[in-house]
Amino acid sequence: MAVEISKKVFDAFVEAALMIKKSPVLKTTPFLGFKTVEDGSLYMYFSDSESTAAVELTKSLIDMDFAVDPKPLQAFKAIKADTILFDADRQAIFWVGSKELTLPFMTDMAYTFENGTFERLFEIDGKTLLDMINAVVFAVSKEELGGLRFVRMEIGKKLRFVSSDGFKLALAEEDITTPQENAFLLNPAIFHGIAKLISKEKDVTIAAGVAHNHIVFSWNFEDYPVIFKARIAHEQFPDYQRAFPEVKYVFKVNKKELKDGFAFLRKTNSSEPVMIEIEGNTMTLMVKSENGIAKYDLEIENETGEDFKIVVNPRDVYAILTHCKGDDLIIKAESNSRALLFECENRQFLSTPIRYYGGVQ
Questions:
Q1: How far apart are CA 89 and CA 65, in angstroms?
Q2: Which of 81, 64, 67, 69 is nearest to 1 (CA)?
Q3: I need a surface site. Which of 15, 24, 319, 321 has the fewest CB within 10 A?
Q4: Do residues 275 and 356 touch, judged by C-beta distance below 8 A?
């Protein structure tokens, strides 16, 4: 008996399942599974060693328990349709209109899906959660995701995510209502999948909780119940508060103007470090290379009145500015050898300076 489901939901799960293969942290063969559980509910899911995402499709009249390689299913993505159908006997068959795809069952997937209840801790809207994930995971850059060992998730009066790769630190927080205070460590690679799923349906309310050593996120995707479970890691996270500088310099900057400045320098020579020099209320961004010197000036508010000079990695700063909220940005520093602190609306970022510039310390 064929099962009909939303093609938008189907395409999103196919795309999210393939994100596992792209992750430099999780070396897992991606698969898309279909399983009927004890209460008769049929789920579509994907999983790895750290997380599981599943969507309840229907109350099935027949038992299903199979998995397929999601890569060939990308062929359906370009087809415009509201639904997709599938069935399974000795092979899996998927079709949209006259377009049909038959796939063999996978037999080597290492993980499966089990449904269950969870203790609800708080709710948050999807757009806010996606923005927080982007800030603490992808502000470090997708290419360097392998440098992140964990993301710390704190709950209390605020929901707070903190990540660091040893050179950069990102902190994002939002107000929530929750009955307890706690902290959990999560593998950053799991955010590939959840970010991909939420980005397809941002206007949702997400319930978060705990179940069997997992953090659980649950929401409705086009009226289909989705559950995303992420394994809690039992390791120590460094005392990240010690990384914040003792503030001796404070500068207020327009975020857009500063981002425009770094964008200009990136176009001239993005691989070279950027010198930030502040004299009075003028900030000068400068890049030196064999091809010459590029400069960009902008007016700022120098609250401490002291001149300041520091060298930064332009890629790091540009990523920070991309994920900062609001128009106003406050930059704080202790010295030109300590991490530079960028503060914007509900976000904090630390970026380690570069000690040498153009061969001169």
A1: 10
A2: 64
A3: 24
A4: no
Structure confidence at residue 359 as a pLDDT band (50, 70, 90): very low
Closest CA to 337 of 352, 318, 317, 327: 352
For the chain, the structural domain boundaries read: 3-103, 119-241, 244-351
Give every CB contact of residue 241 below 8 A, 6+ residues apart in sequence.
none
Q: How far is Cα 353 from Cα 336, in angstroms, rounded to an integer? A: 7
What's domain 244-351's architecture?
Roll (3.10)
pLDDT at 242 over 50: yes
> Rounded CA gap, 311 and 291, in Å?
19
**3-103 carries CATH number 3.60.15.10:** no
Closest residue by Cα to residue 214 from 334, 282, 116: 116
Q: What does the pLDDT average to over 295-324? A: 94
pTM of the full predicted structure? 0.86
Return all residues near 110 (Cβ < 8 A) that are at least 6 apart: 28, 29, 49
Give buried/exposed letters for 59-93 (b at 16+ CB in 10 A, else e): ebeeebebbbbbeebeebeeeeeeebbbebeeebe
* Tokens describing residue 96: 């949209």
